[in-house]
Amino acid sequence: MTADHAGGAPRAVVFDFGGVLIEWNPRYLYRKIFGADEAAMERFLTFVCSSSWNLMQDAGRTFDEGVAELTARFPEEAERIAAYHHRWAEMVPHAFEDSVEVLEGLKEAGVPLYGITNFSVEKFAEARQRFPFFDHFDGIVVSGEVRLIKPDPAIFLHFLECHGLSAGECVFIDDSTVNVAAARRLGFHGIDFCGAADLRSRLDAWGLLAPASA
């Protein structure tokens, strides 16, 4: 657990989404496609639909463009590549309800809520339609829309400028320690997400959460 180094107490809470509020893992889909052959699935996700390839969609490339580029390189994998786009929802099986409860406690307490997420524009639109808790947010910076990717400091500075906030007013929550470290270097408070119970305890220590109902 990494200590928070920003001074004072934050007044606004900034969430990452994948791994904090929603589950996302392509293996939920590709275990259905590859069956028991885990090794083949891992090779495919390492060398074909890789994390670096997916990151290009998070950076603003459309999935149609990404699929076309990859299919040209791996024509024998065309169907499996297309599944990453057309069956994307199967990679996101559920929200983390305990984290959503923390989010709702912050909303009830009147805390300003924001998001900074590495997400494709088109897939975030799908997620937003599917999970109503996204309506709790006062503002969200989506990497694919602004064409900036965490941990690039520019995406955090863009967020602050857009919403008229200073870094010291904000606590940033992410399951990536690299992203949290980048935010801390800019003066944000930071929480390395390791579960909803720890998150609740940290936010409650700042007095940010609404009191539990009697």
In short:
The chain has 214 residues and is an alpha/beta fold. Helix content is 48%, strand content 10%. The protein is built from 11 helices and 5 strands, in the order E-H-H-H-H-H-H-E-H-E-H-H-E-H-E-H.
Number of strands: 5
Q: Helical stretch count? A: 11
Q: Can you identify the CATH class of the largest domain?
A: Alpha Beta
Question: How would you characterize the largest beta sheet?
Answer: 5 strands, parallel
CATH architecture of the largest domain: 3-Layer(aba) Sandwich
Strand order across the biggest sheet? 3-2-1-4-5
Listing every helix as H and every strand as E from the N terminus to the C terminus, the arrangement reads EHHHHHHEHEHHEHEH
Q: Name the helicity range.
A: 40-55%
Low-confidence stretches: none
Using only C-alpha atoms, the radius of gyration works out to 18 Å
Task: Output the structural class.
Answer: alpha/beta
Topology:
Blueprint: E1 12-15, H1 27-34, H2 38-47, H3 51-58, H4 63-73, H5 78-86, H6 97-108, E2 113-117, H7 121-130, E3 139-142, H8 143-146, H9 153-163, E4 170-174, H10 177-185, E5 189-192, H11 196-205
Parallel strand pairs: 1-2, 1-4, 2-3, 4-5
Helix pairs in contact: 4-5
